[in-house]
Amino acid sequence: xxxxxxxxxxxxxxxxxxxxxxxxxxxxxxxxxxxxxxxxxxxxxxxxxxxxxxxxxxxxxxxxxxxxxxxxxxxxxxxxxxxxxxxxxxxxxxxxxxxxxxxxxxxxxxxxxxxxxxxxxxxxxxxxxxxxxxxxxxxxxxxxxxxxxxxxxxxxxxxxxxxxxxxxxxxxxxxxxxxxxxxxxxxxxxxxxxxxxxxxxxxxxxxxxxxxxxxxxxxxxxxxxxxxxxxxxxxxxxxxxxxxxxxxxxxxxxxxxxxxxxxxxxxxxxxxxxxxxxxxxxxxxxxxxxxxxxxxxxxxxxxxxxxxxxxxxxxxxxxxxxxxxxxxxxxxxxxxxxxxxxxxxxxxxxxxxxxxxxxxxxxxxxxxxxxxxxxxxxxxxxxxxxxxxxxxxxxxxxx
Amino acid sequence: xxxxxxxxxxxxxxxxxxxxxxxxxxxxxxxxxxxxxxxxxxxxxxxxxxxxxxxxxxxxxxxxxxxxxxxxxxxxxxxxxxxxxxxxxxxxxxxxxx
Lengths: 399, 98
Prior knowledge:
The structure holds two protein chains of two kinds.
Chain A: E1 4-9, H1 12-20, E2 29-32, E3 41-44, H2 46-49, H3 59-65, E4 70-73, H4 76-90, E5 97-101, E6 104-108, H5 125-130, H6 133-147, E7 151-156, H7 159-166, E8 174-176, H8 179-186, H9 199-207, H10 213-218, H11 221-228, H12 230-240, E9 258-269, H13 272-293, E10 295-306, E11 311-322, H14 325-339, E12 345-353, E13 356-357, H15 369-387
Parallel strand pairs in A: 2-4, 7-8
Antiparallel strand pairs in A: 1-6, 1-7, 2-3, 5-6, 9-12, 10-11, 10-12, 10-13
Chain B: E1 2-6, E2 14-20, E3 22-31, E4 34-42, E5 45-60, E6 63-72, E7 77-83, E8 88-97
Antiparallel strand pairs in B: 1-2, 2-8, 3-4, 3-8, 4-5, 5-6, 6-7, 7-8
């Protein structure tokens, strides 16, 4: 039986801001991309959450719910710096640490010994998992000592149940769930309580008469597969509390599936040239990330959202894999031109998926034109590596 | 040059300026492989640092910019940065009692 911990930092961005500026404590605090109310809430502290505010909510709506909330402009460097310190602390307990997001990580303690760990043979999972509690408390204390931030921990025999366990009690929570306890706790609840099931899927499941996690767990699998494909199987396994996914240690790395950037514009924009300029800037960022991380991609997608929050995502597969920002831009701008009706936009984004490792895959044509372009990209990349991203900017971005 | 977007409003009792790029002069203590601002001069005022509440680094190419979050004796909050390339200090964010 595995012993998996999910460590979830409580209201991470907001907690970091409160730690740095203690005068923010005790009042509703929102962290977001922009202070002028156009962006979305990236994090809300618990005082702000009591007003119904949550991460991902448009800042304007958050301001309506809590007009006296303090809005602080987020700063990724601060949070990444803190994340590195937290991961460093977690690694002192086990090398099997998988960073899951900037404020979450999975730990696999299966092959780790600790004081009070029972001999596994002949014991049920509960005894083993319950014996981890002092270790989990030690992890919370170590994280607090290092970065002065609260963490919640879920303990379970797999990643999915550990993640669900960490959501049971927050902040500074510690919950141990065996698969049996997980079923007791969640089977009577709405399917939307499950990690990965949103409103749209809830509605689709309800059409099949599935409202609770227990109903999803017991539903004939072939019908779920018929309606949802492979995702139907995954949802049922989640409802059952089954998950064989390994904890992938940080040093092994996790292959990226897609890379993208999006931006909430400072005002609604209907000017085509201005949107293309923004699209070029984002395409440039995506291309640079692909090359930096050693990936090539085959599918380019454009995303845009109008002032009434209607979101459109369109994608196109290319003839071959690439990491060229000009090709990303050409495809993305083509998709925008075909699908945008001229309404003012508040958000625009570009992403590339269908990623493969770039090593040895670059194509060379007989006439050397691609090689010339690759050399130029290498030169631009090395200049930016040395002098920063602003050292060279495409002229089209400035329009 | 000050890009001032005040929030909360001064009549809330606080005044925050989100983004400043004012040059400052800083007395700094170096030791144990770290640097620690002690006091700085901003607009002809001396600010005494009561506590460094955090620090982080931003990379600009190969250049490193070191940031510090500070509480002053007056309990005002400041963020300042040191640019290793040209050895200059800047005040980047302020939170003051209104």
